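== Item description ==
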Amino acid sequence: MKNTTLLILIFMILSCKNEIKTTNNESDATIETPIVKDLRPLKIIEPVKWLTEVKKLTETEYELLITAHIENGYHLYSQTVPETGPQPTVFIFQEHDSYELVGPTIEEQGPSIYDSVFKLDIKSFKTKTTFKQKIKLKKPVTKTIVAEIEYMSCNNTNCLMGYTDIKFEI
């Protein structure tokens, strides 16, 4: 949803046309912004792709698996980062009376390495990592669980904020 909104906003900005009109009256003058004639499609950079999976533990308990596939050259930050560091990875599960979260979202072990962008030692993941969230069903009719992910991924020169919606089919 945010990506679509961003694309529409960029398109609107690039589509605006102001013309210059010089008159003797200063209040009638407008500013010209040249229109770019050679518009190439904008490339949305999404270095992290998310996949979900559900693992049944008991009749009412499930483990939700969230796997991040990270593009070569980028890294994804942990859920726990220094206060003066990057945006952490955050999972926001839609509240519903048919299930409850059991504990926090767990991430894989990983080293803290020096990050040249933030000049700090920060835990991050390269290539792939999996997060796990346990849930307990309160009602057996639960079919879909929805969540959002907010995250930051960086390479050696750029950092990108990311946002995505995910679903789990029980």
Q: What stands out?
A: The radius of gyration is 22 Å. The chain is about 10% helix and 45% strand. The beta strands are 48-56, 61-70, 75-77, 90-93, 99-107, 112-115, 120-125, 128-137, 144-154, 159-169. The helical segments are 2-15.
